[in-house]
Amino acid sequence: MRESHSWLSELKINEDQDTWVFTKSMLIKAPIERLIKAMRDHYFSLKFVSFVNCGLGDDALIELLTGLYPEGTCVPKQTQTKREANCMALFFSTDTRHNLKT
Amino acid sequence: MRPEEMRPEEPMALMELDLTGNEITDKGALALSFVLQSNPKLNGLVLAHNKITDEGALALLSSIAYTTEPEATEKQRGQPKKDTGPILQQHNTELKELTITGNLLSEQMKLLMQETLLERGDLILQVLDDPLF
After folding, report:
1. Would you tell me how many other CB atoms lie within 10 Å of the CB of residue B17?
2. What ipTM does the predicted assembly reach?
């Protein structure tokens, strides 16, 4: 099936080609995996990426992060329980703990 | 995405990610906290005007806050990693800017973030909401 690349024409890229600005319109036109592939194809040069007001939501964000960092960064390396324990340890190790509602 | 389309052995060089206004909640914040933990190149993250609550902020904070003295961390660079106990063995020390204004954080959490990240003098934290919004 022939793929439409009309979304690419909307992509704003600066002169150094290190900054990409995505728009909501582009995300409607192209599945997120196409954007991920385009970004990964430029992984050496791409430094700044903007998704301002794109309506990504959690699921698309997680898909994006998993695609950009497939080495497993989105998969918890610790169990959720341990993770929560860490968060709580930090929470209660600060001087502000007495100001916080539990 | 098919595995052959990716290059998992080479992490992204991405330095800054602006996710302003994307209805991201704690679920997304938790995913980002894992990315921060293991991606030292990402040194700017903008999460303004999303739907992150204290829970998500705490996950992010736990990924970037020091739990040991920064000087000790510097000394340990280049040396074999020591077991520092169960708490926060991995955290991002390279993040230079975090913007989390316009979310659903309590005033207490904003204070906690500010005070906890005071140790990280190299990190610019924007957590206080713009009164115009």
Report:
1. 22
2. 0.75
Strands A12-13 and A19-21: antiparallel
Could you tell me which of A8, A20, A30 has the C-alpha nearest to residue B15?
A20
Interface test with A, best of B4, B9, B16, B19 (most A CBs within 10 A): B19
Write the residue in B3, B20, B39 that is nearest to A69 by C-beta.
B39
Mean pLDDT of A83-101: 48
pTM of the predicted structure, to 2 decimals: 0.73
* Interatomic CA distance for residues A89 and B27, integer angstroms: 20
Nearest of B97, B104, B88, B4 to residue B42 by alpha carbon:
B97
B58-90 per-position pLDDT tens digit: 999 988 886 544 444 444 455 554 444 334 446
Is the Cα dihedral A57, A63, A68, A74 positive or negative? Answer: positive
- pLDDT value at residue B79: 54
- Rounded distance, CA A46 to CA A22, Å? 13
